[in-house]
Request: fold
Amino acid sequence: MLSWKHFLYGYNSNNDQYNVGLHEMAHALEYVNFPSFFGGTPKFEENFMLYKRQAELTFPDDQHANMNLFSEQGRSNYHEAWAEGVELFFENPAELNDFYPNLYRLIGKLLNQDPLNKDKIGKG
Reply:
């Protein structure tokens, strides 16, 4: 269940790094794209596992933790790292790219978008 009011509220500000709709849709995208659920998408699963591994390598020794881009939960749980990463990808792409360029690149690959380069959107 998702509150439509809170979903829309997330779009009121484009740079607060918080968007319930994007966060929950990221969880849903992860859930439906694995073969064990609903048939899945092998390419998504492969690229998602690259993101998972990168997050697991990045956050234990995260030199940017004091920037508070990712919550403590996001730095310790790859499902939340994914959902928070998607929020940041759209809400604050420049900062995500500056501090976590590998995560930014992998999210862009998974979503076939690049908010920092609008010419590349949808040209996968």
Remarks:
- The mean pLDDT is 84.
- Residues 55 and 81 are 7 Å apart (CA to CA).
- Residues 20-115 form one domain.
- The longest helix spans residues 42-58.
